[in-house]
């Protein structure tokens, strides 16, 4: 009896295995790739194929070298068709009705933040975008200029008291950059001091800041798991769910506070904080709106507003802080580039600079462009096909439901699109300065994505980065802490961070 039961169970699992293996973990069609393992996809290949167990960015380059512009890649259970040719990438970005927001990662993101604009499509996306996109218009963003400067000054003050020895190597630049960007986010999004820039913020975190950290760490893990595992992980992760409840309580209190403030104050505050702006879009009667078809719905519900705020944090904080971390890393390795930036800033002699003056810093602009080209925080973006299509340059046929990933990382290093003045794997801001023959094809720099789903917060991110970097360079120089602690490398979670960063900080 036991052996019959055992045989039936074995048969059942074998059928399930072969069904899923042949449906989801097998190379189909003419697009090349490496046959994937069950559930692990190409992850094990990635670890063994490349010398020194390559990072994901190395894998992207290796596969392009081996298979050409279009290949299949399974990152674990997630299958994507990788696109490495600019013409195909532009075709994808410009055909929004065929290539909609990618499902591969947003499916998982939806588990923990279902109503954030990044996860939405169709009419629901349009309704949300009509309230969220205007928050990032240039005129709205410039209002935050002083906040960004003040927060950076707070960080500098902290360094002045804590980093007295200019030869000491600091290994906490990732935390420092994250605390700065989270502090700024608190003010811009909620008009709220998250106290991340206080002297003792490392030991004694504010409850909301702690909750943000816990939630964001969980988000990184959830994004990478197979969707059904991600659901179980989220369900069993009481700490992260408690963090989400704390965040929701705070955001809800902030909404109440906004609603109870006098209307003339509210219209003034609307200019300066995301939450005050979004409160004006709250639905008057959520039950009535919920009963309408999506196309007829107006405004946002309270839960949707909360989801948007958390979505902005997820999309904006890790990406911008990572770029700042890379800036510090490259400055520590290139004293001549730091000197060049300082030369450009010298005339302001440590004074606060205006946004017109910030705009005029051409060399710093080239440094930031080069940063986003070489080590942009996102390695690529995904779109999912709503109908069959054919790629114009490579000629491959794609099927409805398949997902393509445009590889920003490979395009940014592709000799076909860049001048050969400097090595494309090295950091040379001058490549943007001396390209007099216009050999650089700037469309191959896609750090913020493209088409109808490109980054909503890109102007804010650019302003934050340029202003913070300028302010830091007005006062400090970063030095190389030595190869053992400052070797860079890639630590790819949801963003592409340096693995090892250790720098000295000297006040000039
Ligand atoms: C250096 C900083 C940043 C980088 C490199 C970056 C990059 C990206 C990328 C690659 C995408 C996907 C675009 C696509 O699929 O075509 C994206 C989407 C998005 N980003 Fe950013 N981002 C940054 C900062 C920010 C900031 C500061 C915010 C807001 C606070 C933000 C909000 C968003 C939103 C809301 C989306 C979703 C747009 C949509 O789905 O329609 N990002 N970002």
UniProtKB/TrEMBL annotation:
<dbReference type="InterPro" id="IPR050476">
    <property type="entry name" value="Insect_CytP450_Detox"/>
</dbReference>
<keyword id="KW-0812">Transmembrane</keyword>
<dbReference type="InterPro" id="IPR036396">
    <property type="entry name" value="Cyt_P450_sf"/>
</dbReference>
<keyword id="KW-0479">Metal-binding</keyword>
<dbReference type="InterPro" id="IPR002401">
    <property type="entry name" value="Cyt_P450_E_grp-I"/>
</dbReference>
<keyword id="KW-0408">Iron</keyword>
<dbReference type="Pfam" id="PF00067">
    <property type="entry name" value="p450"/>
</dbReference>
<keyword id="KW-0472">Membrane</keyword>
<dbReference type="InterPro" id="IPR017972">
    <property type="entry name" value="Cyt_P450_CS"/>
</dbReference>
<dbReference type="GO" id="GO:0016705">
    <property type="term" value="F:oxidoreductase activity, acting on paired donors, with incorporation or reduction of molecular oxygen"/>
</dbReference>
<dbReference type="InterPro" id="IPR001128">
    <property type="entry name" value="Cyt_P450"/>
</dbReference>
<feature type="transmembrane region" description="Helical">
    <location>
        <begin position="310"/>
        <end position="331"/>
    </location>
</feature>
<dbReference type="GO" id="GO:0004497">
    <property type="term" value="F:monooxygenase activity"/>
</dbReference>
<feature type="transmembrane region" description="Helical">
    <location>
        <begin position="40"/>
        <end position="63"/>
    </location>
</feature>
<keyword id="KW-0560">Oxidoreductase</keyword>
<dbReference type="GO" id="GO:0020037">
    <property type="term" value="F:heme binding"/>
</dbReference>
<dbReference type="GO" id="GO:0005506">
    <property type="term" value="F:iron ion binding"/>
</dbReference>
<comment type="similarity">
    <text>Belongs to the cytochrome P450 family.</text>
</comment>
<keyword id="KW-0349">Heme</keyword>
<keyword id="KW-0503">Monooxygenase</keyword>
<feature type="binding site" description="axial binding residue">
    <location>
        <position position="455"/>
    </location>
    <ligand>
        <name>heme</name>
    </ligand>
</feature>
<feature type="transmembrane region" description="Helical">
    <location>
        <begin position="5"/>
        <end position="20"/>
    </location>
</feature>
<protein>
    <recommendedName>
        <fullName>Cytochrome P450</fullName>
    </recommendedName>
</protein>
<keyword id="KW-1133">Transmembrane helix</keyword>
């Amino acid at each position: 009896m036991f052996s019959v039961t055992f045989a039936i169970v074995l048969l059942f699992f074998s059928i399930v295995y072969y069904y899923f293996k042949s449906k989801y973990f097998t190379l189909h069609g003419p697009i090349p790739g490496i046959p994937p393992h069950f559930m692990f996809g190409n992850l094990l290949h990635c670890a063994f194929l490349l010398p020194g167990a390559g990072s994901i960015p190395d894998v992207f380059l290796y596969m392009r070298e081996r298979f050409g512009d279009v290949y299949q890649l399974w990152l674990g259970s997630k299958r994507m068709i990788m696109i490495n040719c600019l013409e195909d990438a532009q075709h994808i970005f410009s055909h929004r009705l065929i290539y909609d927001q990618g499902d591969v990662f947003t499916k998982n993101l939806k588990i923990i933040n279902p109503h954030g604009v990044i996860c939405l499509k169709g009419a629901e996306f349009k309704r949300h975008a009509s309230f969220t996109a205007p928050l990032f218009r240039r005129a709205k963003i410039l209002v935050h200029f002083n906040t960004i400067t003040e927060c950076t000054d707070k960080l500098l003050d902290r360094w002045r008291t804590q980093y007295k020895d200019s030869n000491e190597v600091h290994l906490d630049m990732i935390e420092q950059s994250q605390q700065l960007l989270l502090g700024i986010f608190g003010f811009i999004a909620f008009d709220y001091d998250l106290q991340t820039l206080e002297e003792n913020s490392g030991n004694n975190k504010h409850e909301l800041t702690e909750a943000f950290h816990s939630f964001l760490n969980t988000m990184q893990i959830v994004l990478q798991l197979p969707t059904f595992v991600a659901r179980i992980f989220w369900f069993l992760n009481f700490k992260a769910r408690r963090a989400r409840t704390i965040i929701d309580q705070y955001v809800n209190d902030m909404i109440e506070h906004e609603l109870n403030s006098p209307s003339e104050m509210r219209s003034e505050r609307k200019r300066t904080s995301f939450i005050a702006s979004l409160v004006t879009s709250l639905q008057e009667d959520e039950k009535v709106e919920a009963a309408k078809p999506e196309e007829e719905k107006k405004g946002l519900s309270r839960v949707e507003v909360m989801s948007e705020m958390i979505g902005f944090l997820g999309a904006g904080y890790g990406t911008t802080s990572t770029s700042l971390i890379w800036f510090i890393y490259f400055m520590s390795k290139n004293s001549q580039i730091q000197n060049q930036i300082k030369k450009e800033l010298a005339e302001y002699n440590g004074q606060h600079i205006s946004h017109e003056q910030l705009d005029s810093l051409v060399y710093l602009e080239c440094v930031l462009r080069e940063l986003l080209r070489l080590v942009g925080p996102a390695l690529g973006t995904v779109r999912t096909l709503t109908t069959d299509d054919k790629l114009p340059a490579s000629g491959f046929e794609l099927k409805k439901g398949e997902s393509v990933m445009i590889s920003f990382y490979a395009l940014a290093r592709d000799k076909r699109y860049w001048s050969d003045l400097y090595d494309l794997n090295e950091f040379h801001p001058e490549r943007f300065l001396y390209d007099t023959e216009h050999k650089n094809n700037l469309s191959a720099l896609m750090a913020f994505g493209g088409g109808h789903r490109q980054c909503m917060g890109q102007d804010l991110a650019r302003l934050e980065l340029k202003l913070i970097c300028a302010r830091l360079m007005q006062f400090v120089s970063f030095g190389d802490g030595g190869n053992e602690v400052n070797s860079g490398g890639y630590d790819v979670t949801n963003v592409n961070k340096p693995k090892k960063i250790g720098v000295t900080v000297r006040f000039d």
